[in-house]
Design brief:
Elements: H1 9-15, H2 22-30, H3 32-42, H4 45-51, H5 58-76, E1 90-93, E2 100-102, H6 105-122, H7 129-140
Antiparallel strand pairs: 1-2
Helix pairs in contact: 1-2, 1-5, 3-5, 5-6, 6-7
């Protein structure tokens, strides 16, 4: 069995429902390191190591394959100019297919957030603290408080 990640550009294209296009596959391949880095930074090292090993468990392999695909697509979204199979980046086309309404910057930002949330949901059982914080931030819109420490300073008043 092969490692769960990285996933080939052709398989990512299939998972996220993109058309067959060499330019898209080369863009996906060029951004592969970003998806790997993202996953490595958001999951426990033991789970990441298993996902990149030659014998990942089937549940873990499936979760990481989908998470990798969604993160990779999120990473390249604004770089590819495509019309996906089914519903996709183009919001609507005219009756004669000559007019098209593209996603706005706000639409793309929302779509990217949705893809990242979908990716993190796939690997929720494997999060490290960074993964948990990012997931919470995407769900609530607020950043988490990171390790706040408090201590009480007491003075010795026994000098009398």
């Amino acid at each position: 069995m092969a490692a769960a990640i990285p996933v080939s550009a052709a398989d990512v294209r299939t998972i996220v429902n993109l058309p067959i296009d060499g330019n898209i596959e080369s863009t996906l391949s060029a951004h592969s390191a970003a998806a790997i880095s993202y996953l490595r930074n958001h999951v426990e090292k033991t789970h990441y190591d298993e996902a990149t090993s030659e014998t990942p468990g089937s549940a873990l392999a499936s979760a990481f394959r989908y998470a990798y695909s969604f993160i990779l697509f999120e990473s390249v979204l604004e770089f590819i100019n495509i019309k996906t199979i089914g519903t996709g980046i183009i919001k609507s086309t005219g009756i004669d297919d000559q007019a098209a309404e593209l996603l706005t910057v706000k639409d793309i930002a929302s779509f990217k957030k949705s893809l990242e949330l979908r990716a993190l949901t796939q690997i929720i059982d494997y999060f490290n603290l960074t993964g948990k914080n990012r997931y919470r931030e995407l769900l609530t819109g607020s950043q988490s408080i990171r390790g706040t420490r408090a201590s009480v300073i007491s003075g010795d008043d026994d000098d009398e």
